[in-house]
Amino acid sequence: MDGYKGDKPLYEDDKLKIGYLENSPEDHVLYIKTESEELQFIIQRHILRSLAKAEGGDLVRIIQTISPTLFSIAERQGIGPKEIHDAIRKAYATEEENRQKWFKEQGLEF
């Protein structure tokens, strides 16, 4: 089922990027872009969906459990929780679109 998981990021803007973790197609990685590097935070399998569907306070709680430093690092880069949540929602939507397209191409629509 890895056929729908391309090398392109699921989401990318000038501050954030979300894609699949290399050599681990079930896990995701969120990059915070700085002037000199991209800091990466691993989002374990099946968590992207939970984050995308989480409400404000739940999102913060889940992310702080996964990576306690993510929000403080993001804040130093001028990125707030809403921006992170919007990026995660868009990444999840792209993943679902890719998955549905792949199933359709395989003749497995449902």
What do these coordinates show?
The chain has one domain (2-104). It is an alpha+beta fold and 110 residues long. Strands 1-2-3-4 form a 4-stranded antiparallel β-sheet. The longest helix is centred in the C-terminal third of the chain and has 25 residues, at 81-105. It is globular. The mean pLDDT is 89. Helices cover 45% and strands 22% of the residues. Helix 1 crosses helix 4.
Q: What oligomerization state is this entry in? A: single chain
By DSSP, the count of extended strands is 4
Helix-strand string: EEEEHHHH
Determine the N-to-C terminus distance: 15 Å
Kindly list the characteristics that best describe this protein.
110 residues, alpha+beta, four-stranded antiparallel β-sheet, 4 helices, 4 strands, globular
